[in-house]
Design goal:
alpha+beta, Serine Threonine Protein Phosphatase 5, Tetratricopeptide repeat, Immunoglobulin-like, 10 helices
């Protein structure tokens, strides 16, 4: 079994490192093989070997994967399968070993091929398969938040035994999720609902008004049906509202002014008391500090009332002036209406 070949993994990695440069000597000479890319791939491979020896399987897996992407070498797939097995990611190990046999083909020695084929049989008992149905082409599939690919898939998705979450993200952005429980060497078929097609809602135009053949002419009585006095009522009401608002603001202004006077007087009284304590021998420091603190507080409050009174005085003056102007305008409009009525 794979776990019984711990030393074989390390030896295979070292042998793969030695064979890496040899097997790619022809590739390095090819026009498409950049010497810098070959050097980076070899460096990452050696780094992956070192990380594996240090017990960092995750780091070794990342470096070897990067080396394979730079310059594919089927021997690296065998090492990746070994590491994935040690991480108990049996589905990934199964995929690496299958690719190893496919890409290595007749270059793999028969004893090694029989070994890997036996490992594949063991891994199939530790994994299951998910067969997705009724999904439109181009739908992106995620398995446990990891992107698997887009539909269609040539083969069912291999996954470790246990519970998994499968997400399908459609082109429209809609997402559907399914929970799958897999047993060893089992194929589970998962069905998704096709997303509803967005239908444009067409709002019918409003019906055209019916036209009478012989519309009746408008009579003078119909034109004068609305009394002119009705237009004046809202304006008068608005004028009364503004008038009340100005009185209310003046009342608030007066209250603030009174508050400023009271608190100012208290501050002055506290200042006098503090002076008396200061002139007393021996003066009490605690009483003096307390009186000074109360004096400052009352002075601040008095200043606040004073500022508020000044602001409200300005507001009150504005409301009074605007109310007076509107009252004059209404008086003028009423006089003009009276003249018009007298003329009729």
């Amino acid at each position: 079994m794979i776990r019984a070949r711990g030393w074989v993994v390390a030896l295979a990695l070292w042998s793969g490192s030695n064979a890496f440069g040899a097997s790619h000597s022809s590739a390095a000479a090819a026009p498409s093989a950049d010497p810098a890319v070959v050097e980076e791939a070899q460096s990452r491979f050696r780094r992956g070997v070192k990380l594996y020896e240090d017990g960092d399987t995750a780091g070794a897996l990342a470096e070897l994967t990067r080396a394979y992407r730079l310059i594919p070498n089927y021997k690296i797939l065998y090492n990746l399968g070994q590491i994935a097995y040690q991480q108990r990611d049996f589905a990934a190990a199964l995929g690496y070993f299958r690719r190893y046999l496919s890409e290595g083909d007749d270059l793999i020695l028969k004893p090694r091929r029989r070994e890997v084929e036996a490992d594949i049989v063991d891994l199939e008992l530790r994994t299951g398969r998910i067969d997705i149905e009724s999904l439109p082409a181009g739908t992106t599939v995620y398995l446990d938040d990891v992107r698997v690919g887009t539909v269609p898939f040539p083969l069912p998705i291999a996954a470790n035994i246990g519970r998994h979450r499968l997400d399908a993200v459609f082109d429209s952005g809609q997402r559907q999720s399914r929970v799958v429980d897999l047993a060893g060497d089992e194929t589970v078929r998962v069905t998704f609902e096709r997303p509803a097609l967005a239908r444009a809602l067409r709002v019918p135009p409003p019906p055209a008004p019916a036209l009478r053949q012989n519309p009746a002419p408008l009579t003078p009585s119909f034109v004068e049906a609305r009394p002119l006095e009705s237009e004046d009522k809202p304006r008068r009401k608005s004028a009364r509202t503004d008038h009340r608002g100005s009185w209310l603001s003046w009342t608030v202004t007066a209250g603030l002014a009174v508050g400023a006077g009271i608190t100012g007087g208290l501050a002055l009284e506290l200042s006098n008391q503090a002076d008396e304590v200061l002139n007393t021998y021996p003066a009490s420091k605690s009483n003096l500090e307390g009186l000074r603190g109360q004096q400052r507080t009352m002075a601040w409050v008095s200043d606040g009332f004073t500022i508020g009174a000044l602001v409200m005085a300005g507001v009150s003056l504005y409301l009074s002036l605007s109310g007076a102007s509107e009252s004059e305008a209404q008086a003028g409009s009423l006089s003009r209406m009276d003249v018009a009525r007298a003329a009729r």
